[in-house]
Amino acid sequence: MSVLVDSIYGKDNVKFLKIKRDPSNPKIQDVIEVTVKVLLKGAFDVSYTKADNSPIVPTDTVKNTILIKARTEDPFLVENFANILASHFLAKYDHISSVDVDIIQLRWSKYLVNDKFHDHSFIKDGDEKRICHLFRSRVGDFKLTSGIKDLTLLKSTGSMFYGYNKCDYTTLKPTNDRILSTDVDASWVWSNQITSSNISDLSNNGLFDKTYASARKITLDLFATQNSPSVQATMYDMASEILKTSSKIKSVTYTLPNKHYFLMDFSWFNNLKNDEVFYPSPHPNGLINCTVTRDPKSKL
Ligand SMILES: O=c1[nH]c(=O)c2[nH]c(=O)[nH]c2[nH]1
């Protein structure tokens, strides 16, 4: 006898681009391009165990819903748009018990033409993405996470690594000057002060956009200015600074690959010295993760 212990389904990779026109001049525009995933849980067991499709809200319907809501609502405030989608599925289908929404936003930025940001031309600023995840359940669970992904950084000095554990397996040489490179994956979990009732107002007041901008700036600034003792120490400092930006942030998580660049050995060529040419090692890479929360003894 087999038993279904868990299930979830929905649509992934639903993509759209939406234009926002300035009411005073429709040629002044903004765009948002996103990939959305919506997954549903609920009374769907018979569709797996009895081949009874009657409870299934087709994933095609899920896709249509995302696209129609993109047209009729404002997806530019991504956290609020995630909540609009979750609210829809919970309100429309009694047998849905929870909804997971993931939104990944590409970075289209206006660029300078004749020293002025062009009205409607954009450049894709690298692979960087803004992300948000919302889990909402019918019984009132509300867990919102926002973040940055795939922000690739490199510094050519101002990073060290020494004083680590050494044993008979250790070959790494300590250094006080190395290249540091990573793809930033940073996310922050919002506290239960954010609810389905106040998320719209908080979005309109700029909380999520401002926090995203601050978290990005903290990441970039600390990466550049700190003489990093290790990835671990730098990511902890970044997370601690982000926590300070809003009392509504409960925790901050960083996951950083340590992308290695190895100095090439040219001594075989007339004993040529080299401290300039490096090999970007595709693998393996270090992978370092930490979650930082507020000290429960502190006030904020
Ligand atoms: O910042 C670092 N942290 C490590 O844990 C580690 N391990 C390693 O080989 N190099 C580095 N660098």
Describe the structure.
It is a single chain. With 300 residues, the chain is an alpha+beta fold. It has two domains: 1-140, Urate Oxidase (Roll), CATH 3.10.270.10; 152-299, Urate Oxidase (Roll), CATH 3.10.270.10. 25% of the residues lie in helices and 40% in strands. It is built from six helices and ten strands. The protein has an eight-stranded antiparallel sheet, with helices on one face. Strands 8-9 form a two-stranded antiparallel sheet. Strand 4 and strand 5 (142-155) form a beta hairpin. The chain starts with 8 loop residues before the first strand and ends in a 7-residue tail after the last strand. The model has no long low-confidence stretch (mean pLDDT 97). The structure holds uric acid. The site of uric acid (URC) has 7 residues, from helix 6. Uric acid binds at residues 161, 172, 230-232, 258, 286.
